[in-house]
Every structure is written in structure tokens, then in C-alpha cells.
Amino acid sequence: MRPSRWLTSVIAAVTAAVTLAAVPPPPAGEAAPNRFEQQKIEAQALDAFKRILGLWREEVYFELYDQGMEASKARITRENFAQRMVQLEWLPQGEPNPRYLSADYRFRTMAYVKVRMLYRNKFNPSQQFNKDQTFLLLQENGTWRIDLVDLIRSPYGS
């Protein structure tokens, strides 16, 4: 059963607010990164996203859980996450097209990855669809992390 668009919008807004509340402000007096540092941060976020996407495609859900933000791990257990991912009908297919893959730097520890995802149906591989999406990545303890609940919702949300 698909939730209504309104409910999906409300859930997405609440999730974004909770996630952003967990983002620490940059240290006082720290200079903004220059263009080259910003490009390096974006490249690191993209590499992390590709690694996360690879785990998802391979259906390695316990390892994928380890790539989650602390705030999302507090909301869902490893077992519940894996079970819900197994129940999804759709999986990402192949590598994302570089033309539709970009990182949008916000802070040294925060970036949005924009991607056009190709999903295929697990049970009927001839069923596929493309979807433009944006994923928030936060750097926690030196590693880029993703919101696990966003991954569960991603094939279905608008």
C-alpha cells in the first residue's frame, strides 16, 4: 500500500528537520573551504554514495546499515532495516549515469547527492523506471553517512 502524497511530504519534511537538527554547526572561526577544497569534499561524497549504492545493489544490507547516519540508526535497528530492504520490490540497477550524478556541497560535513536512479523490479526484471532523487550525506567520524530511512523510502517517495 502506497502512502498518500501528502503523508509522504509530511514524513519527508519531518525527516529532513530531524536530520538537519543533528548536523553540528561549523566550528567558530573556521574559514569556508576554497573552491578546490569544496570540489574535493564533493568528490569524496560522490565516492561514498557510489560505495553505498554498490552495497544496496548487491543486497548486502547489514554492511549497508553500517553506512547509516547515527540519527537514522537510532530510529531503526539493523535487523529491521535489513528486513525492510529485503521486502522492497525495487533495486537500483547498474551504475548511475555520470551525466545525472552530482554532489552539492553545503558544509564541510554535509553534501547533497543528486542522481537519476534506474530501479528494476526484483521479481520482474523487465519492469524498470528512472527517478531523479536527492540524498543527504553527512560526514560523521570522518566517514560519509546516509539516512537509512531515505533508502527504504526512495523507490516509492515522490
Report on this structure.
The structure is a single chain. The chain is globular and about 50 Å long. The mean pLDDT is 83. It contains six helices and five strands. Strands 1, 2, 3, 4 and 5 form a five-stranded antiparallel β-sheet that branches. It has a single domain (5-20, 41-153), classed as Nuclear Transport Factor 2, Chain: A (Roll). By secondary structure, the chain is α+β, with helices and mostly antiparallel strands. The longest helix has 23 residues, at 35-57.
Short note summarizing the structure:
The protein is α+β, with helices and mostly antiparallel strands. Helix content is 43%, strand content 25%.
In quaternary terms, these chains amount to: single chain
Q: Percent helix among the residues?
A: 40-55%
CATH level-4 homologous superfamily: NTF2-like, domain 1
CATH third-tier fold name: Nuclear Transport Factor 2, Chain: A
Indicate the overall shape: globular
Low-confidence stretches: none
**What's the SSE pattern?**
HHHHHEEEEEH
- Summed over residues and divided by their number, the pLDDT gives a mean of 83
**Architecture (CATH level 2) name:** Roll
Tally of discrete structural domains = 1
Number of strands: 5
* Approximate strand percentage: 15-25%
Total DSSP helices: 6
By secondary-structure content and strand pairing, the structural class works out as alpha+beta
CATH class: Alpha Beta
Radius of gyration: 16 Å
Q: Strand count, sense and closure of the main sheet? A: 5 strands, antiparallel
Terminal CA distance? 15 Å
